[in-house]
Amino acid sequence: MAGSISEAARAKINLALHVTGRRADGYHLLDSLVTFVDLGDALEFWPSEADGFHVEGQFGALLGAEHDNLVLRARDALRQLAQNLGCATPPVRIKLVKNLPIASGIGGGSADAAATLRGLSRLWKLDLPEAKLKTLAVSLGADVPMCLASTPLVARGIGEELTLLPDLPAFPILLANPLVGVSTPEIFRALTKRNNPPLPPFPLEGADWWPYLHNLRNDLQPPAEELVPEISTVITALETSGAGLVRMSGSGATCFALYHSQAEVEAALSRLKETHPTWYLAASHTLTGSQA
């Protein structure tokens, strides 16, 4: 629409997720290698006489009550922060095109919230202090700060301590989700060990990342496969598709496969669509730091 601003809410992929400890307040400490994919939800913002919110897209009907949507929580939190700093925040209409599965381990809701912060900051012409915006992002969810950056990075702490990785290469990728419910709290409760080793030192500049990635893990994957057997089915299907690396992202149920060429991704996607027509399947590529 004329005068509108668009923002991509790209899918977040945990190439590795090491659970390294647990704080006294119950939050788990993580060491996660994160990248983003050139697909995801889409948001559009434009000035209006009154606030409005519209959801469409493949998974739009599955979202919860409007008042609890992370997009609206992000809008309201950003508006309050901006007004506290004396900035104008006139009414806005927001459209969310929900292309990603709900609660699927690839940061859908968090990416939507982060895209809202970016989009409304542009629409309202805000220039907020970075520290205040980061604090606001953390208050919306542990994954929101990394989705706000939306570039390859390492996330530590509960997800708020970020180190950008501009040299992480892009990889052809296939996402697969059996569209079954996954309870993140249950998966964390099922962990048998919470003081696992952190990420090892990164490859030297120009080195091959494939051997490094193979030595990493997702500590949430074993309990997730135990609680949701369909995840094991997805992992097996991806492993037999010619992938170079297969792993679960976040707390699931989305799993990913990395390939050495885009042609391999497209061939695997075609085969899996025939054998598993009810799954969410999407082929793309991850982003480098220069692309984000």
Structure write-up:
Pathway: Isoprenoid biosynthesis; isopentenyl diphosphate biosynthesis via DXP pathway; isopentenyl diphosphate from 1-deoxy-D-xylulose 5-phosphate: step 3/6. It catalyses: 4-CDP-2-C-methyl-D-erythritol + ATP = 4-CDP-2-C-methyl-D-erythritol 2-phosphate + ADP + H(+). InterPro entries: GHMP_kinase_C_dom, GHMP_kinase_C_sf, GHMP_kinase_N_dom, IspE, Ribosomal_Su5_D2-typ_SF, Ribsml_uS5_D2-typ_fold_subgr. By secondary structure, the chain is of the alpha+beta class. The protein has 2 domains: 160 residues, Ribosomal Protein S5, domain 2 (2-Layer Sandwich); 114 residues, GHMP kinase, C-terminal domain (Alpha-Beta Plaits). It is 31% helix and 27% strand. Strands 1, 2, 3, 4, 5 and 6 form a 6-stranded mixed beta sheet that branches. It has a 4-stranded antiparallel beta sheet with strand order 8-9-7-10. The two termini are 24 Å apart. 40% of the residues are buried.
First and last CA, distance? 24 Å
CATH class category label of the largest domain? Alpha Beta
* Number of contiguous helices: 9
Helix content: 25-40%
Mean pLDDT rating: 94
User: What is the subunit organization of this protein?
Assistant: single chain
Structural class: alpha+beta
- Count of DSSP strands: 10
The Cα radius of gyration reads 19 Å
Instruction: Indicate the proportion of strand residues.
Output: 25-35%
Runs with pLDDT <50, length 5+? none
Second CATH tier, the architecture of the largest domain: 2-Layer Sandwich
Shape: globular
Number of domains: 2
Sketch the topology as an H/E string, one letter per element: EEEHEHHHEEEHHHHEEHE
The main sheet comes to:
6 strands, mixed
| CATH topology descriptor of the largest domain | Ribosomal Protein S5, domain 2
